Amino acid sequence: MRTRPLKVALLGCGVVGSEVARIMTAHAEDLAARIGAPVELAGVAVRRPGKVREGIDPALITTDPTALVKRGDIDVVVEVIGGIEPARGLITEAFAHGASVVSANKALLAKDGAALHAAAARYGRDLYYEAAVAGAIPLIRPLRESLAGDKVNRVLGIVNGTTNFILDKMDTTGAGYQEALDEATALGYAEADPTADVEGFDAAAKAAILAGIAFHTRVRLDDVYREGMTEVTSADFASARAMGCTIKLLAICERAADGGSVTARVHPAMLPLSHPLASVREAYNAVFVESEAAGRLMFYGPGAGGSPTASAVLGDLVAVCRNKLGEATGPGESAYTNLPVSAMGEVVTRYHISLDVADKPGVLAQVATVFAEHGVSIDTVRQQSRPDFQDTASDGGEASLVVVTHRAPDAALSGTVEALRGLDTVRGVASIMRVEGE
Ligand SMILES: NC(=O)C1=CN([C@@H]2O[C@H](COP(=O)(O)OP(=O)(O)OC[C@H]3O[C@@H](n4cnc5c(N)ncnc54)[C@H](OP(=O)(O)O)[C@@H]3O)[C@@H](O)[C@H]2O)C=CC1
Ligand SMILES: N[C@@H](CC=O)C(=O)O
């Protein structure tokens, strides 16, 4: 074993960084044995130097991450600050000053992954980011390396722990949205600004990364259709239960049947209780991969939290350190196909639409005609009178009409809903939710 240690600069010492530092110290001997050289924490960059940080030598703390990465003797930079800047500039400086980089920063990788990969290649360094998608779950490496000889056609996943935690609590305990979010934040799952979680930005970033790796193409954050989960109500859960479903915020990346394009989307969806992803509880993540030769694979585990995420960071650290010692780099970017990313309108799936309608003769026929005119085939219709509503315009009361469709293009469904809103007898569109799984 080499005795001279590899030097690691830790940028950020929050939920994830503090766990990385703790495990580096606690498992120093094991890490050294696996790498073939000891690893030494050479500096820890933070924003608030006065904060007590258990187990970290105060002499290592700095508020100048740029000076740390420019020192010239750093072998690996671990970036767990998050956000776009200064993280992006620091990673680029790290490459320029001789270091490889391990990052957990999905927001940055989804936005600027291509430029960062190009910079890493230019300087002959590694850029690893297993922790950026689905926390502790080994996913990037299996997709990039283990499935490199296969053709992945679909990736369907629960990739945000915070929203899965909230939806699970709402479903199983009847908890309110805010109560469940507060609990997820206290447990360290949520981002500093939980908007990124609940509005689906975090999952969209992960979907962009996953789609890019799975289909060997370039998918940017802006290519991902995104809907958050803040509008999901207890009434939606009741509708889902009536259909034998639950509701999950899903990231779905698909290759078109003709192989000529891909789509990536994030939105809440009803999922049959029999689907393996339906039983993913609390902040757990799971990703279902469908490939030509391997068939269906499922990856499951903790997707957020300091210690699980640190596990993925340290796995990358070991790999990058081994590459350093071997004076090699690992597999770089696999984006070589440059497939176009289709718009959401071209996505084909099923829909659950809940309408408030006047409860009088002919309404069902009117509604069915609108679906037919837009080429959307109805699978089931359920009507329920609503004694709580009084019809102001006519003799009848109001009814709730739940339509579940067969598979149809998203654009056709949007057209249908727009036309339904124009009917006098349709008082409102209470909810529209996609239905995934068979
Ligand atoms: N938390 C999780 O479960 C997961 C997080 N991630 C990703 O990991 C990364 C880190 O997340 P997390 O640990 O939760 O974030 P935190 O907010 O807990 O930690 C951020 C750290 O960065 C430091 N920091 C912020 N700005 C600067 C700056 N300008 N210069 C120096 N240091 C700075 C903060 O310093 P100070 O301590 O002084 O405030 C803090 O130590 C993010 O990219 C996140 O998306 C990925 C998977 C899961
Ligand atoms: N906020 C994220 C953390 C991991 O990426 C989540 O809740 O999944």
From TrEMBL:
It catalyses: L-homoserine + NAD(+) = L-aspartate 4-semialdehyde + NADH + H(+); L-homoserine + NADP(+) = L-aspartate 4-semialdehyde + NADPH + H(+). Catalyzes the conversion of L-aspartate-beta-semialdehyde (L-Asa) to L-homoserine (L-Hse), the third step in the biosynthesis of threonine and methionine from aspartate. This is Homoserine dehydrogenase. InterPro entries: ACT-like_dom_sf, ACT_dom, Asp/hSer_DH_NAD-bd, HDH, HDH_cat, HDH_CS, NAD(P)-bd_dom_sf. Pfam families: ACT, Homoserine_dh, NAD_binding_3. Its EC number is 1.1.1.3. Keywords: Amino-acid biosynthesis, Methionine biosynthesis, NADP, Oxidoreductase, Sodium, Threonine biosynthesis. PROSITE patterns: ACT (PS51671), HOMOSER_DHGENASE (PS01042). Pathway: Amino-acid biosynthesis; L-methionine biosynthesis via de novo pathway; L-homoserine from L-aspartate: step 3/3; Amino-acid biosynthesis; L-threonine biosynthesis; L-threonine from L-aspartate: step 3/5. Gene3D superfamilies: 3.30.70.260, Dihydrodipicolinate Reductase, domain 2, NAD(P)-binding Rossmann-like Domain. SUPFAM superfamilies: ACT-like, Glyceraldehyde-3-phosphate dehydrogenase-like, C-terminal domain, NAD(P)-binding Rossmann-fold domains. Its cofactor is a metal cation. It comes from Streptomyces physcomitrii. Residues 352-434 form the ACT domain. Belongs to the homoserine dehydrogenase family.
